[in-house]
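Notes to self after the Tuesday call (sharing in case useful).
The group wants a holo model before anyone commits to mutagenesis around the pocket. I volunteered. Ligand is adenosine monophosphate. Logging inputs and output together so the record is complete.
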Amino acid sequence: MTTRAPKGTIDVLPPESGRWRMVLRAFDALAERYGYGLALTPLFEATELFARGVGEETEIVSKQMYSFTDKGGRSLTLRPEATASVVRAYLQEGRRGVLKCAYSGPMFRYEQPQAGRRRQFHQVGVEYLGEPSPDADVEVIEVGYRLLEEAGLGDVVVLLNSLGDPADRAAYRVLLGGFLQARAERLSEDSRRRLATNPLRVLDSKVDAPVVADAPSTLDHLGDDAAAHFGRVRAGLERRGIPYEIAPRLVRGLDYYDRTVFEYQARSYQAAQDALGGGGRYDPLAELLGGPPTPGVGLAMGVDRIVTAMPEAMGAERLDVFVVVADPVRRGEGLELVGTLRGAGLAVDLDLGGRSVKAQFKVAGRRGAAVAAVVGAEWDEGWVTVRAMATGEEQTVPIAEVAAWARAH
Ligand code: AMP
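Result:
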């Protein structure tokens, strides 16, 4: 037996990877349309970045980090998320003002693997730095929503909440702490521990949902500024036709959020009620990392989960043309036609194994070719026989017209 992929990781190969390619491309195009440039940051960072940025008391930092000491004695960690890295890069370069950027890549968390939960998973996300306006929140939420739409997920709802400003949140924390303390004996062991360190996280707990169902809501304890901000986010979403529900228990696991937090859920993806993505405003983060006050809002989408939730038929492998070589002596001409069609921007392939015509047609079908172009004796007169795979319609056309015929079929 050869070595297997580590626990909690997957391999993605064709044809299944067609769906991945579709989502990654859709995200890339969306990010560009919405004005987000590309950000590339290291896959590993100083451990301290996540301890300070994400928060010592979070599950991600306290339990799930892939940390190691390198040969130089530095403590490094495979990134569990990308926001801290992007903000670090912004601060390290001494940037000021607005920076909009998008990222895509693997993240690492030492989780108990289960459906929708892996140790290496792929996120795409955007960060909108330096902009306090609630319209930035709306834009970021819209990017994620449109991505899910493009992935064929029409049944998505945005769960929306506001954590308020840091002062609101501190006061709420005390209030919530009191509420939970009074019910401590009904809470799970995990939640009792969190009660002392990070009571907001208890609201995230699935097992304790019944106990926290009537906990006080952050929304009833927003200061005027945070309440006005939240009102404008809601109005903006309504203007953009993005369906949302107020989710008073949504707090998200990371420490750096303030004001708006959100998650995307799809009725077609119900595994453990897990979100397809989420994000929020993180105005305190830059200062936590030792930088000047810098507002920011961002989102991260879980590509593994989106791909699982997508309609089966989407992202199927397809080719515009499969070139069938009727006689092995025509291999050279076949390759010439493939080259011409690829040069014309079409997705084209052929079989190099010298298989029979029948077998080549079979491969053409399996590979999702729209058109088969047969290179045979008529090549010498400048002709190729083309066949629309779906209908069986067949025609003999001049070599120079194969591309146009394929585009029309
Ligand atoms: P988070 O910031 O932790 O909410 O992560 C944002 C999104 O990334 C989630 O909504 C998931 O879609 C995805 N995600 C987070 N953790 C995992 C994981 N362990 N395995 C697969 N996807 C994940």
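Two things stood out.
The two ends are 46 Å apart (CA to CA).
The mean pLDDT is 94.
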